[in-house]
Amino acid sequence: MSVENRSRDSQRLYEDNKPIALVHDPKIDMDKKRITFPAVNAQVILNVNKSYEFQEWKLACGSTQLYSMVSDGSGREYPYSQLICKIVGSR
Q1: Rounded Cα–Cα distance for residues 89 and 91 (Å)
Q2: DSSP state of 52
Q3: How far apart are CA 80 and CA 70, in angstroms?
Q4: This prediction's pTM
């Protein structure tokens, strides 16, 4: 089964239809077209010039604070705090 046909996890950020980050407790402000993620655990380093997908939206994300890298031997994770993204359209 292809990635496009699988149902998406509503608590993940996607890039090019691939899940790249787990988000926690997103705050969605439709008036300002903004989503704030208090905490994000990414498998990749997030780039401020990329667009990402979350649920049904396309997002442009600003800068964020990268915590020190965590490694438990199973691979790398990049924990972020306070990722703020603007809703730029629907996916």
Answers
A1: 7
A2: E
A3: 11
A4: 0.79
From 11, 15, 43, select the one nearest 24 (Cα to Cα).
11
Q: Are 8 and 55 in contact (CB under 8 A)?
A: yes
Q: Identify the residue whose tokens are 């997103």.
A: 26
**What are the φ/ψ torsions at residue 22 (nearest 5 degrees)?**
-100, 130
Q: Which residues of 33-63 are buried (b: 16+ CB within 10 A; e: fewer)?
A: eebebeebebeeebeeeebbbbbebbbebee
Q: What is the pLDDT of residues 7-61, one digit of tens each?
A: 889 999 999 999 999 999 999 999 999 999 999 999 988 887 789 999 999 999 8
**27-29 and 51-54 strand pairing:** unpaired
Distance of CA 79 to the CA centre of its chain: 11
* Measured torsion, CA atoms of residues 56, 84, 63, 69, in degrees rounded to the nearest 10: -80
